[in-house]
Amino acid sequence: MRLAAYMFSQAFRSLWRNKLSSFLSSVTTGFALFLLGISFLISINLGYMYRMAETQMEIQAYIDKDATYAQVAAVVSEIREVAGVSEVRYVSKQDALEELKEMFQDKASVLDSLEEENPLPASVRIKTTHAEDIPGVVETLKNLAIVDDVIYQEEVSRRLVSIGRAVQYLSLGGMLVVGVVSVMVIANSIRLAIDARRQEIGIMKLVGATDGFVLTPFLLEGIFLGFLGSVIGTGFAVGVYNWVFGKIAEFIPFMPIFDLDLTSAMDMFGIMALTGIMVGIAGSAFSVRRHLKV
Amino acid sequence: MINLRNVSKVFNSKVKALDAVSLKIDKGDFVFIVGASGAGKSTLIKLMYKDETPSNGQVMVLGKDLSKLRRREIPYLRRRIGVVFQDFKLLEDKNAWENVSFALEVTGTPRREMQRRVNQGLALVGLQDRKEAFPGELSGGEQQRVAIARALVRNPDILLADEPSGNLDPKTSLEIFSLLERANMFGTTVVVATHAQDAVNLLRKRVVELKDGTIVRDERRGAYNY
Lengths: 294, 226
Hints:
The complex is a heterodimer.
Chain A (H helix, E strand, L loop, with lengths): L1 H16 L1 H37 L3 E5 L5 H12 L4 E7 L1 H11 L4 H5 L10 E6 L5 H9 L4 E5 L2 H42 L2 H9 L4 H41 L10 H31 L2
Antiparallel strand pairs in A: 1-3, 1-4, 2-3
Helix pairs in contact in A: 1-9, 2-7, 2-9, 2-10, 7-10, 9-10
Chain B lengths: L1 E10 L3 E11 L4 E5 L6 H8 L7 E6 L2 E2 L8 H5 L2 E5 L10 H10 L5 H14 L15 H13 L5 E5 L7 H16 L3 E5 L3 H7 L2 E6 L2 E6 L7
Parallel strand pairs in B: 3-8, 3-9, 6-7, 7-8
Antiparallel strand pairs in B: 1-2, 1-4, 4-5, 9-10
């Protein structure tokens, strides 16, 4: 207990004593994490836009006109069980006509003539969780007895799948690159701060301090600086994002853009804090280790 | 207590600092290591607390063969050895009291006992009134006394001093040496590398003279020169 108290008091005393370099380390860490946060937000947005596009993809399965209501009901519940299907909606002949009227409101009178003998087929409209599920679902639908024809945006769905993959790789790669760069920047700034205290470490070793005893206050400092950096980085990233978000909402209102709510901001902060702390620990440990061989 | 057998130390595979030195120091001894600059005095001292490792030969300290000592065992060896340097090696941002207590923090000494021993140590070197002073506010002699208090606060078995009076005037030097002698009277084995002729001649202790890395004289109750 007393040892822990000693470690903490040492860590905070030295942070305070080296105010300027501590502050600079935090700011550097903060800046690196800011970049990480921004790349994280960009990847969230790419994913968000992709999902928006994905949910608008719809498969239409036209039902044979001689199918009975019971057959249709059976098929609908059967489709619900197909893997990847998220939403199934039955559109009767009448519904289809209403839909058509809706679309051509001004020429509704022309469509009135269709009332007597409605030529539109009933259909089942299906949405999938992911665009890549579409081809499989379409295959299953084609094999159902009462399904006449299956219509979907084949080309669009295929492109969407490949775009989805590209988005994933791109944002993962981007975050990885920025992550590695942040780690290097942070580790370096910690190293500089610790190099300045070589003598202190030497004296500690001289009076018989174990490596752990020397290292622990530095690790605590690293954790604190990393955490402080993540607060700074997240703060700036969220601020900048919300500003950009406001501008986009103002000038390009139809653009799907992710509204950063508190939960997502906290998620992001969690990731940043974890990164900051881990990098702080790693940076301190590596830098001090070089001086421990006394 | 300390036993060197055929110890050689070569730096950068050409500079020979010590050449087949054998030296036995018993418990309670007070030994002056003398010799010209570059004769190998500092190297000899450094071998004794494993700041350097010998190129050849065996260094036994406190019953342990230092070349077989594992890295994580070194701190425990050093806790039984106090070391004093020419440049004091105090922590500039800690006051006198904290510099001394630092040696006890390292071993996790309980607060109450630490207080008692640090106060005792500072009293021993006559600095009980300067506890709050930082190294920058202390004279050279006072700084060295803090360093000695730090070295002695753990009641070490061995006290090593490498030119402890190198930066001090003759009068202050004598004060420092009398402190080392007092430590020796309490039973600590003391080894001092020094150029301080007056002190060596005054105290009349065992004198080991080094020349070009070899022992050329080992004399009981010796003087600085023949």
